[in-house]
Amino acid sequence: MTKLRTPDTFQDAMTKVLTQIGPAGAARVITALTKRDYSARTMREWSDPDTGTLPTLMQALALDTAHRLAGGEDAPFRDAFSQQLGIKIQQQKACRLALVADSLDFIHKAGELHSALFAAAQPGSSPRDHHRALVEAQQVDGVLRRIRRRLPNFLRPTMSTGSGNTGGTHQ
After folding, report:
1. What phi, psi does 55 have (nearest 5°)?
2. 17 within 8 A of 26, measured Cβ to Cβ
3. Helical ranges in 47-75 per DSSP H
């Protein structure tokens, strides 16, 4: 049974390399590079999304090179890396935009809460005024909870060597 591979993943890239040069050919490339014996089975494992094993960057470069020299189009590992990088960048941009949207929503809701609190504090205010203030306070609380869930995404290091992060998933 053929396992499905998510397009533009490293496992998909390895599958493309194996299609072009075969598992034995890939093993020869990696053996020549590392001066250690690699088997065709290891090459197939690198294409299997369930094994969790992948070639190193230098091995991926050697496999891309062999793929091209054998007449393959493009460079599967480079293309997969580029696609995944683009996805990460877009996720970070989306997270930043979502944080800005939450900030604007907070300002709007806080203004409505301020108005409702002012009305509720007036002499002769009605139970409806107090109820509106409570609803507005709950809405501000909801926006603050969203902001609190989003902010840690900017603190988690991702694929960098730096101590911080410029954004994260826009959950």
Report:
1. -70, 160
2. yes
3. 57-69
